[in-house]
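Q: Got a minute? One more chain.
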Amino acid sequence: MGGNKCQTHFFECALCARTSPPSETYTCPDCGEPLIIAYDYESVRGKFHSTLAERDALSVWRYSDLLPVARENAVTIAEGGTGLPKSKRLSKDIGLPELFFKNEGQNPTGSFKDRGMTVAITRAVEISAETVLCASTGNTSASMSAYAAKAELRAIVLIPKGRIAKGKLAQAIVHGARITEVNGNFDAALERARKMTGKGGLFLANSINPYRLEGQKTMAFEIFEQLNGKTPDHVFLPVGNAGNICALWKGFKELTRLGITKNAPRMIGVQASGAAPIAQAFSKGANEISVWKNPETYASAIRIGAPARWRGALAAARESGGAIVKVSDREIARSQRLLADHEGIFAEPASASSLAGLIKYKETIKVNETDTVVCVVTGHGLKDQKSVFQ
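A: Always. Here it is, folded:
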């Protein structure tokens, strides 16, 4: 199941290609772009091939040979290994026999955030951090608080006042985090969090932290294995702060770089129409986004107007031949209901945007009926029950 030693890694800027040793500075000092983690892939190749040949249970830590922290230090609550059920009813309605849902709501705190948080909090332990911090619309705070509790670390959560689902806030509270409300939206909370960590002494656990993306990329490895060594033709997923689309694209690219597969999927990121700065830029062919100062959507997890990794999201879509699209709140709500009453999957609103994007853009994106399509369902519906009663 992979070695215990930390894989040698370094930081890399995807924009200007600057490399640097690992540190607690997560943005490029030359151009300000969020950094990513890279490896000596030739030294990993044989080990990782061996990992995929083993029949052990799926989990984030199954892929420790391509993670930047030591497995023996892992702060884990058994994350990863989520289901990839094949659609039976919606596939007929949509006309896609090979439609799958990656159900990340099955993670310990009910969202995909646990994949990244297990690696990020392990990194915090390795560098002897005592306090971890995040800004959050909900899922990040729930996940970070749980893993901080497991690791005996203090947790501070900044939330936009009055704009967080109670189910997610309850998780942060019960795990013992210190909650601070910030006037404004998520973007204001993240700005404050970054200023706080800039003064030192706090470990920032938002998706600007490249260690988070390393855990989240394991979803790509799992999808590949669950499809019996096949890469899907299309992956639809929600986009808010844009860390997840960057992470999955990185994971699929690493599979090709290691010679495990020759194919990578088209990445289709889906934003809510009331919070769609990246979709707007993509549709215009622009290389910069316009920040949305007042994003608004009932899909609170993706209610973000200044996504930190917007450039990486545009790159993932363009490099893969995919797209960044937008859907209305009504289309999201309809897809949430379809997932529940057709497939037995209760997804929070933001999570249903992936299906909404597929339904709306199937013809535009030219999804063929023979294609294998994966819709990522990022979080469980019990975390945001208000939408059901509206």
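A: The chain is about 40% helix and 15% strand.
Q: Perfect, thanks.
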